[in-house]
Amino acid sequence: MTKLFDIKGYWNMDYDWNFNNKDMWEGKILLQDNGWFEGLVVDPNSSYKKDRFIFGVYHPEKVIDLYKFAPFSVSSPLVFHGEIDTDGYYGQFESIGLFGTMPCGNSHIITKSAETIRQGIEDETKELEEKIQKYKDTTMDEITTDFYKNSLAIRRTMTESVLRNYEGKEFTQEEIDELSEEFEPVNDRILKSTEEEAKKLAKKMPDTMYDDDDDFPF
Q1: How far is residue 70 from each of residues 32, 50, 53, 57, 166, measured CA to CA in Å?
Q2: Across the strands, what pairs with 8?
Q3: Would you say 87 and 74 are in contact if contact means Cβ atoms under 8 Å apart?
Q4: CA 136 → CA 72, 127, 170, distances in Å?
Q5: What's the pTM?
Q6: How does pLDDT run across 120-168, given as a tens digit for each residue?
């Protein structure tokens, strides 16, 4: 059964735990029973006012790993990590690059179950489902599409790994072997794609390596 949640996220690039309403994003997610979620958010204080796509793993009252994407021309992909505390989920957030992730600062994520604060969420849920699908069909660029499809292909591995890591439980060898059947084909595809992108980047390097005007990753 899919559940509707309101979600709000804050960031602090100074690695401080103080957050404000300027550096924030907010929106809604649809959470599936297995811990996988998808949704849309906006950055109200950004010059880019359109929706941004989020997805990832969320185990309520425990842990969340959230990937946040706008068109690549607007923002680098981001991932927010959070573990439950007294008033939400706290952790770090990172930008996602060709060769891995780069720490950017601290984050705070707050979620609220929509059914506990308002009525008539069936229509609201259906509307969000349609908006998410429209985003995938019309707005999602090639980079986001590839990353999302690869993540979707290993969502069982992702949802279970995030939970096990939070709970400090290890996988048995039998479980590892079973999950590897899902993960290895995607991993091979990612490695091939990374190699191709690295070659393209190397050709552009002389024109970009001394650029000092880079924007923030979002």
Answers
A1: 23, 9, 6, 19, 28
A2: 26, 110
A3: no
A4: 14, 14, 35
A5: 0.83
A6: 899 999 999 999 999 999 999 888 898 898 888 888 889 999 999 999 9
